[in-house]
Each structure stands twice: as C-alpha cells, then as structure tokens.
Specification:
Length: about 300
C-alpha cells in the first residue's frame, strides 16, 4: 500500500498549478490526436477496447486515489473506473505504474489508455489531455483530538476559538487558513500528514487542516484522533472544490464521452457512489455538484 509520504505528495500535486504532468513533447499531441481517434477502418477507441477485453490504466501508487495492494489495484479511481468500463463492455483494468510527472506524457505517448490516479482538473492539464467530468471534489476537514474538545466544525469556528491550526508546508490549506482570518502565529507548518496527526495527538496543535479524503484515510492509523465533517472553504469569495477526474488521450473524445455517460449515472446516485468508494474515505460530501463542469474548470 502507498505510504503517507506519497499521500502528502498527492496533496501538493492535486491542488497546485505548478506541477509535473504537464510536459509537452513537440509534435506528440498532434500525432496522437490523429492516430488514436479511430483506426483507418473507422473503429473507435471504445470498440478497440471492447475487442481486446481490457483497458490499460496508469496509476501513481498514491493512496487512497490509486495504489497497488499485493497484486490488486485499489483506490478511488480504479474502483470507479472498473465499474464504468464494465458497464461499457470492457471487463479488465491492466495497470501501469507511473511517476506523477510522467502520467500525461505517457498517456499521450500511447503507453496506456486512461490515467486512473484522481488527477485534479486544471487549465494547464486540460491543454495537454482530455478530462472526464469531475469524479469527486475534495472538501476540507479538520483532524482533532478524540472527542473534539474545542468543538471545532470549520475554519470560522477555529478562528473564534483562537486555536492553533496545522497545515502542510507549501499546500493550499495555508492560504485557506489565512483567508479565514486565522492569525499567522496560530498557523503551524508541518512537513507530512503523519506529522500533523502526531502534533494533534501531542497537543502541539488543536487541529490539522487537509482534505477530508486524506484525513479520513490518515485517521485509520491514528485512533486517538477524529475528523470533522467536511466543508468547502472559500478563498477570495470563491468556493474551493478541488475536483479530480479520469484523463484520456487527445483525440479520444468519443471514449471520454462514453465514460462520462456512465460516470453521470454513478455520481447521480448517492448510495451507489458512497457504496463504491467509502472504503477509501469518499462519502456524500465528495460527490461533485451537478453544476460543476470540466469545461468551466478548464477555462480557469
């Protein structure tokens, strides 16, 4: 299983515009869009996948988004994608491990068909690949000591209580805390998720701010803590949803669109969505709003 340093790395990358995975090889995108939209006989990408009986997916071994446990590919993205491709007539996922910054270049080079890694949808990435509609959003939560002695619910309650809040070094949560009016002296920087959990348990901070997804996963191995209900923070008056989705090769619009039709059936069914993904810390609060569209996210 992926360790928590990998989870920390995912925490930086899924919310940062200055990330890897955006490498463009001259001529690569054009070549792929010409050859992968369909074969000369008109056969489309989905038809080819159905005929071969499997879809090649890339993962970055970052729990709980996509990781290998023993010989089994697990996590949010593989679980959701397995369900969708089965509905499309493709029964097997064949995994390929990739470094995070190689996911999109490898996709465009034809090494695999789909990125199944819970990748955040950003304008920079949209310029180099095709994204599905959002599979999830990443609302924020607080990890606190068992019993939640300060009765914290969100950043406004943390500010009112005058507590010390921990955030990951370089991650976006620091700006959320500052934007909520928490004084600089009450914001403590930590290097990785387990440091945050240890600081909560040791009383060095009162709360650790991170996505609810990551904190619920972290809480599994830190039983003296609990995680508040997730909430969507605001920054400069805008809600920060941090959505992620599947990624497809440029030119595979038909495959992406077929995927989206099945994805919509799942995200529109709360009990089905939660039943599939709650094992990985995804609940009803991670279901993307129907109004949140990839086309808008790609515009920035």
């Amino acid at each position: 299983m992926a360790d928590f340093p990998n989870l920390s790395r995912r925490g930086f990358l899924n919310r940062s515009a200055a990330v890897g995975g955006l490498l463009v090889v001259p001529g690569l995108l054009t070549a792929c869009s010409k050859t992968d939209a369909g074969a000369a006989n008109g056969e489309g990408a989905l038809d080819k996948l159905r005929k071969q009986g499997f879809v090649r997916v890339a993962y970055a071994n970052e729990a709980p988004y996509g990781y290998l446990e023993g010989k089994e590919l697990k996590g949010e993205a593989p679980t959701l994608h397995r369900e969708i491709f089965k509905a499309l007539g493709v029964d097997e996922l064949k995994p390929t491990l990739s470094e995070w910054d190689g996911l999109i270049p490898g996709l465009q080079a034809g090494k695999y068909d789909v990125v199944s890694a819970g990748m955040a949808i950003t304008p920079e990435r949209c310029a180099n690949a095709l994204f599905s509609e959002p599979e999830f959003i990443s609302p924020t939560a607080l990890m606190v000591r068992k019993g939640n002695p300060e009765k914290l619910t969100d950043l406004a309650s943390a500010k009112a209580a005058g507590v010390t809040v921990g955030v990951m070094s370089g991650a976006v949560e620091g700006s959320y805390a500052e934007g909520a009016g928490i004084p600089e002296g009450k914001i403590k920087t930590l290097q990785k998720p387990q440091d945050g959990a240890d600081a909560v348990k040791g009383g060095r901070i009162d709360a650790f701010l991170l996505t609810g997804i990551s904190l619920r996963w972290l809480a599994k191995t830190n039983p003296d803590t609990e995680v508040t209900e997730a909430f969507v923070p605001e920054l400069d008056g805008k809600q920060q949803f941090s959505p992620g989705g599947a990624v497809f090769r440029t030119g595979n619009e038909d495959l992406r669109d077929s995927f989206n039709r099945e994805l919509k059936k799942i995200v529109s069914d709360r009990s089905r969505y939660v039943g599939l993904l709650e094992e990985y810390g995804f609940g009803a609060t991670e279901i993307p709003p129907a109004t949140l569209k990839t086309a808008d996210l790609c515009k920035g």
